[in-house]
Design goal:
With about 500 residues, this protein is an alpha/beta fold. It contains 13 helices and 16 strands. It is globular and about 60 Å long.
Amino acid sequence: MRKPLLNLCVAIVLSTLVSSSVEAEDRPNIVLIMCDDMGFSDIGCYGGEIRTPNIDRLAREGMRFTQFYNNAKCTTTRASLVTGLYPRRTGSLLNSEMVTIPEVLGKSGYHNVLSGKWHLGSRAPHRPSDRGFDSYYGLLDGCCNFHDPSIPDPDFKGGRVRWFGEDDERITSFPEGFYTTDAFSNYACEAIQESVEAEKPFFLHVCYTAPHYPLHAKPEDIAYYRGKYLNGWSSLRQQRYERQLEMGLLDPAWELPPPDPEVEDWDSLANREYMDHLMATYAAMIECMDRGIGQILETLEDQGVSQNTVVMFLSDNGGCAELPGGLDESRVPGVKDYYTCVGPGWAYAQNTPFRRYKQWVHEGGISTPFIVRWPERVAENSWCREVGHIIDVLPTCVELAGAEYPSEYNGENIHPADGISLLPLFDGQTRTGHEQLCWEWNGNRAIRRGDLKLCWDKKVQEWELYNIVDDRTEMNDLASAHPELVEQMSQQWFDWADETGVRHKKD
């Protein structure tokens, strides 16, 4: 009697294993690519002139979102992206009451790899290895020297060496010709190969530091763009705006805003050649990143997994107007010996057609390209004009993987996710969206409810109200005409701020 029973048990186990194997094969791989400080209009498929054939291919073979939001800042965006939660400001941005995408997917048999920038902690228990990634390579800090991460920041940025390494081991020397963007792409490709060899579905998070300052690029890439920006930022913005209109990205009723207050008049500048050099270097950084994305797409094809891989691409915030160390023409853009930035004029053009920049929560700070390609599932060259937010990415990945979001993890009660899966939108359907979305960074505030958005600019110190559907470029302030809406929506923002731990004073 024992032998038939044993045979039956073995048959059941084998059947279960086969069933699980088939299910694992059906589950898609996920490649989530995020770049750093890139503006809404920098890539070709969103109106830019920079050569981005591989990102444009993702758009041509997939779906472009027109209303997708980030959190306006590196750290808070990264926290929301991997947790599906608004940033919690009490304690760490990653605490024990949260789970990450790799922690959830790991329970369902996914191989989880990070290549690039983490910026959510370089010590236990906040490293990638502590939060579900099986392996990682890259930068645990903000941004480093692209040519040699062992070079310390200049004194005006604190003079420290950024934490760069692999699987908790710090790397302190780098070979001649090293360039972070290429290194991140190479590691990502190796991770794909290893996952396929292991016959496991994979979640690969590729976080480029391009085109975040310092402006470092290869001489041959910079040379291509030199002289292409001598007409200035206002001219560039107008050209991008016209391309955006032609491709159907924008509503023609939206007015193109004038320069932000920090933007100088191009014709009054005596250093236009130098400013051209800055933007040429920035463009070169994006083009190199695009080549790396092409390398990743080629590896997916070579490994035979392209058809069953969901690729998503976005930016962590809008173009950056910051000028650490000021504007010093003795600092040469591109080379490893100098630390340079584009400044507000070029950031104004990068965020076409919107107002403001990184750190602000007007549309220029929080709007990102978002592209998804999933062959045979997402319609080619399609548009999604519904609202999405980075808090939606974790629920989307969980649904894609057939995983389950836990109410408890490692003995801790877990916050319910704030996000909503994007999968119906990927399928060309609709979904019940967010009742409201909220933002805050460094005193800038916003809340969006339906067609309306309420903003607080720390430099203006007044609430502004916009119909964001009719006026996405935020040119017609309705606050004085609707004080009751300002009162209601501002109170809702303060309620959200209290819930998530945002420090504020009630104005």
